# Entry
Amino acid sequence: MTPYTKEYAIRQDEKDPLKHFKSRFIKSDSDLIYLDGNSLGMLPCETPHHMDRVVKEEWGKGLIRSWNTGWYERSAQLAAKLAPLIGAQPEEVMIADSTSVNLFKLAYAALQHQQGRKGIVSDQLNFPSDIYVLQGLVELLGNKHQLRLASSADEMTVSMEELEKQLSDDSALLTLSHVVFKSAFMYDMKAVTRLAHKKGAMVLWDLSHAVGSVPVYLNDSNADLAIGCTYKYLNGGPGAPAFLYVRKDLQQKLQSPVQGWFGQSNPFEFNLDYQPAVGINRFLAGTPPLLSLSALEPALEIMTEAGINNLRNKSVLQTRYLISLVEEYLSPLGFSLASPGDETRRGSHISIRHAEAYRICKALIDPQTGDRVIIPDFREPDNIRLGIAPLYNSFLDIYEAVMQLKLLVEEELYSRFPLTRETVT
# Structure
């Protein structure tokens, strides 16, 4: 059977061992195809029921007493469920704050630990917010450090040779996204970490576009530090708390710059002299947001049940299938692939480029244009990102999305929409 037909997609879905997980997520519009799980994951069916109990029982009835019946330990308990997804030990992971705040805390701690070294290395493909944090740190520390960005020859990938060129014996920290936000390029974590360590640099990984979509092996790679969000492939909800990882042998050597009371060795002594907690708790700061933290629990349980290796296997099949459809149907219409063709070097979203990418995205989302409502996302200047979340995306979703893209461009239906960008793209 040719892979370019609807029947082929349906057959692949029938054979999918993970197909039943799709029903575990809320989808109020039967005509919707959601391909933006790489920005915000869908809502698990269990989460509203779980949150109803948390709000009514734990908050409503328990009130302040709930701090002694589960709230105080919740960050660590959920971190222990997340740890296997990133190849870490439970005592090396904590859920807290936002991704940017965690990056600030760990990058600052690394630079202070690496006194005498002045180099910070990242790359031009990193998420801009990460670069902003690093630029702010350089200024905060008196402009004594130099930030160097490895370049990309193809706007999709960064070579090991280029990273090695930017690293030196003066490098204090290398910080990169494991999976790049725009192109989905995925670094070889073990090889990059080994390269940085040879130069004496510590390594801090941003796992935001990796966790829940690809297996991550922090311990096996001997990674020093990591951060990441929980609202993309982990389906924790908008603004869900982020996480951080500090390798066990480094925890007592590093100091968080945000000395909040939850990072104190005994916060309820209310001692005026700060003493950092032993272990990963020292990287906590203020009171955790219990409601948004609690919303993460059902999502982590689904992810654990499905198995990250099973999800990766399905993701590889689906991204491979999507690329074959792009080449067959969309390349003749002016689209080009903006993600690595090698599946061992990419995550679970595919970027395609087109001169009219923004208006095409608007047309896909508009319910009056085409047969289905399809939600991707747009990234400047001309990228359409198609996020594949194997928990709830089917092969048929992918086929129908490509067919609608084909229709919109062939009939120039996107021309109905203005070029003016909305605030959030």
